[in-house]
Amino acid sequence: MVSDYDDIVESQEDKGEVNAGPERVLNLVSLVGITYFCVSGGPFGSEVAVSTAPPLYVLLGFLLVPFLWGVPMSLMTAELSCAFNQGGGCITWSNYAFGDLVSSQVGWYSWLSNMVDLCLYPKMFSQYLLNITGTPNKYVFLTNYLIQMGVVWGVTALNISGVELVGIATTIFGVIVFLPFVLMVILAFMHGKVDPRVWIESKFQGQNQWGLLLSTIIWSFSGYDSTGQLAAEVKNPAKTYPAGMFLATILAIITYLLPIMVGMCIDKDYVNWQVGEWQTISQLIGGNWLSIMISISGIVSGLGLFTSLSCNAGRNLAAQAKNGFIPTKLATLHKTKMTPYFTLIINSIVVSVFLVLPFDQLLELDVVLYTFTLFIDYIVWAKLKWKHPELERTYKIPGGKLAYLWIVPPIALCVFNFVVCQTSTKIYGVSAAALGLVIALIRYLVRRFILKENVHSDESKKLIT
User: Fold this and answer.
1) Which DSSP symbol is given to 356?
2) Please, what's the b/e burial string for 372-385 (b: 16 or more CB within 10 A of its CB; e: otherwise)?
3) Which among 74, 230, 356, 436 could disulfide-bond with 108, CB atoms 3.0 to 4.6 Å apart, if both were Cys?
């Protein structure tokens, strides 16, 4: 099916509609900006973790789990993105390692996860905006939906305009998100409101919720793998990817740890911490002006998260089209901007429809589907390292043969996360996986018996450059 996509590109080139492919326009700063919003986007949502366990264990979690979960993911992304000098990310990697069936399932899991994720951030944007402006109760739903639709289609236009603009925008968003929390931390220390003894408290008024604590931290450091979709558009990937993953990880750790450490000293009613706690804490530290800045930070965070994820999700769907999992014409690039505009628009249509739905249980499904994808990603990396040493890797995970040990903790966490999730979520996750297999079977039968294609031919290795 790769040849179908090549025919499209050649046809467009003959007509003068496109170049050979997207240009490498993302530098280190832009990659860090996009990765930061794929992984973190600010400490919003981390408040829930504080309500689950004593301060000592919460802080240890945010300090240690990134090295057991986020760092292996970032190292894997850097190595595979450099080995496969093109976009497609996990779909391209799994196709080369295992072929169409596994690749199609990875694409299916990651696309579903992306769609659920994308629905959350416009809601976050509108909620923080209405917290500042206010709106009559009878118009809340309509106002929220119109704001969310504006975010969806405004960001879609930005993404179609080019990945270079996305990189610049997310870098600016990152500064806006980061600055109010820097001020909050500085003011707390200047006013003598920080008591380090709080950080080593091991007693807790409420009931420990270790599963929720772990899942919150895991989700707070997820998303590195999605930047593999941009491999064809990154300048000097051998140097840019490792450095970008490292810097984004450091920024993410600081983003969570410092505000939480300060916040614990200000509001010691840990059991009742919830989403939105940062407005309360900033109010106590700096007054109304700082609280408003934090609210603006929340608005921009939602915008940045949606922008980054939408950028990568569009390329995810385009990669599936290149592999023939969906109609190959959907992988067509914009004539001048070289962006996958068809898939960006399709994703936005899906998100626009699902914005009206509640997402409490879908959130857990999102995590399960994401861990399905990651589990396969790590197996793909291990097989490629073992079976395909001939691949030119301009960057390798350090450790030589011991590098396999890097993936043991995240795989264990993937399994643990599935075990501890609710039974209903397990059912939905397994059902979604089964549906993906059914779709793959139908596609196989159509290609084999209706289109009379030779589906046993091994074309996957044509994806490597």
Assistant:
1) T
2) bbbbbbbbbbbebb
3) 436
CA-CA distance, 7 to 343, in Å (whole number)? 19
How far, in Å, CA of 343 to CA of 311, rounded?
Answer: 10
Pair of tokens at residue 322? 């290149």
Residue in 159, 126, 312, 334 with CA at minimum distance from that of residue 228: 312
- Within 10 angstroms of residue 236's Cβ, the number of other Cβ atoms is 14
Helix ranges (H only) for 389-422 are 408-420
Neighbours of 191 (CB within 10 A): 10
Residue 325 to residue 320: CA distance in whole angstroms: 5
The identity of residue 103, as a single letter, is S
Dist. CA 109–CA 436, nearest whole Å: 8
For 195, the token pair is 């008591």
Q: Which residue has the tokens 């051998």?
A: 238
- And the tokens for 72? 């292996």
Q: What is the DSSP string of 270-334?
A: GGG--TTHHHHHHHHHH-HHHHHHHHHHHHHHHHHHHHHHHHHHHHHHHHHHHTTSS-GGGGPPP
pLDDT in tens, 342-375: 999 999 999 998 887 765 556 667 777 888 888 8
Neighbours of 424 (CB within 10 A): 11
Q: What is the distance between the alpha carbons of residues 264 and 287, in angstroms, rounded to a whole number? A: 18
* pLDDT tens-place string over residues 262-301: 999 999 999 888 877 898 999 999 999 999 999 899 889 8
Distances from the Cα of 111 to the Cα of 105, 116, 230, 347, angstroms: 10, 9, 16, 9
Are the beta carbons of 125 and 299 closer than 8 angstroms? Answer: yes
Q: 326 to each of 5, 92, 115, 118, 366, how far by Cα in Å?
A: 11, 15, 17, 21, 22
Closest C-alpha to 158, from 344, 402, 351, 365:
344
Distance CA 298, CA 279 (A): 10
CB contact at 8 A, 56 and 202 = yes
Instruction: Check: CB of residue 86 under 8 Å from CB of residue 231.
Output: yes
